[in-house]
Amino acid sequence: MYLTNKTDYSLRVVIFLLKSSDKKVKIQEMSDFFKIPKNHLKVIVSQLSRLNIIITSTGVYGGIELNPKALNMKLGEFVTKIENFHIVECFNEQDNKCVISGRCKLKGILIKANKSFLATMNESTLRDLK
Description:
By secondary structure, the chain is mostly helical. It has a single domain (5-129), classed as Arc Repressor Mutant, subunit A (Orthogonal Bundle), CATH 1.10.10. The protein is 46% helix and 6% strand. It has five helices and two strands. The chain has helices at residues 5-19, 27-34, 38-50, 75-82, 106-121; strands spanning 54-57, 63-66.
């Protein structure tokens, strides 16, 4: 299993905000800390905001903070909101072009592995990353 940079960066943003819970954070601050381009973080922050995981505000006193309601979100739930879990093409029924999909047992094994991964992730919440 491989998590994309998008998921990695999203988790880093959440962890950074958890560690900075007493103040609002600027994107530039996270960019400097993680050595991640500011434009990449803007995309991540925008998505996390749309998902109501973080709260953003503009202006001199603006910044980013975690939405307290998101602290109890399970990590598996978080990751599935960010990540595409179509590990192989047959996971996506609409685009499935595999000629052996009707006889292949691999899909069932991968589905089981995926469920196990998410079950393990769901044993923890975002709050547990602090």
